[in-house]
Amino acid sequence: MDEHNWLVERFEIERPQLQAIAYRMLGSLPEAEDAVQESWLHLIRADRSSIKNPGAWLTRTVSRICLDMLRTRKVRSEQPLEASAPEFITTEAGGIDPEEEAELADSIGLALLVVLDRLSPAERLAFVLHDLFAIPFDEIALMLERSETATRQLASRARRRVRGEPTASDVDFIRSREVVSAFLAASREGSFDALLSVLDPDVMIRTDSVAVSRGAAKEISGAQAVARAFKRLLERTQFAQLVLVDGAVGIVIADPVDPRGWFLFLLRLTIRDGKIITIDMVADPARLHQLRLTVLPD
């Protein structure tokens, strides 16, 4: 077997693990696939004489790629890089016992969607690699270019966020999700009164030019008018799904007949005091392509 075929075979063996790491790091399947593909490009360009363990090398490489993507995402969102990560003055023996690990594994599905998206890139990498994939802290420290003690502390704080009391932002997220879920359920059921109960009296729908070209009104204001509009919309499409949109809860409305599963609209909702105050309807493919969407269970 020539070297190229051996590399391809070895990479395919490692691909499921790389995909799992990248997905848990990034929370987006398309981005995870991009990261894995980039790790392959790094591999074929690398000096392979220095690679003693291809599996470990690829894990480090895809992790660094994901870390760079997370940091780029933070900068693009105009959030201070690792602003919530102050220096630690205490040390931790490190690790959690097997029973605690089992409890953490049981809860990680929701945590990945709700909590991990709110961690700094370094916290997320330390937590995912160590607690979910059992990669030693000394290896993770090299990826982060930090001391092993600091890396343990990053994972510890992320672990507390996952298992401990929710922060104010986590509580806001949960409440917003409840409101959006109630809105979607009422729209599906055609319950006018239930729709009105989650809409602010002065709620407004704003649509982009592509949505207008597809027949949507440019602007609709008032709870009753908005409720009627969404009752009609869900009666026509019958396919809508909660999604995580750049850390906030939204709704995707798609065409169930189209085999490509194209979106009709993405709804970005603004919520205040338990009521929806604005709904932005996005249909422009260029804007949709820039957004990071993760499907949420109803």
From TrEMBL:
Residues 111-161 form the RNA polymerase sigma factor 70 region 4 type domain. InterPro entries: ECF_Sigma-70_Domain, NTF2-like_dom_sf, RNA_pol_sigma-70_dom, RNA_pol_sigma70_r2, RNA_pol_sigma70_r4_t2, RNA_pol_sigma_r2, RNA_pol_sigma_r3/r4-like, WH-like_DNA-bd_sf. GO terms for biological process: DNA-templated transcription initiation. Keywords: DNA-directed RNA polymerase, Transcription. Residues 14-74 form the RNA polymerase sigma-70 region domain. Pfam families: Sigma70_r2, Sigma70_r4_2. One of its GO terms (molecular function) is sigma factor activity. It comes from the Bacteria. The keyword Transcription applies. GO terms for cellular component: DNA-directed RNA polymerase complex. Interacts transiently with the RNA polymerase catalytic core formed by RpoA, RpoB, RpoC and RpoZ (2 alpha, 1 beta, 1 beta' and 1 omega subunit) to form the RNA polymerase holoenzyme that can initiate transcription. This is DNA-directed RNA polymerase sigma-70 factor. It comes from Ktedonospora formicarum. The gene is rpoE_5.
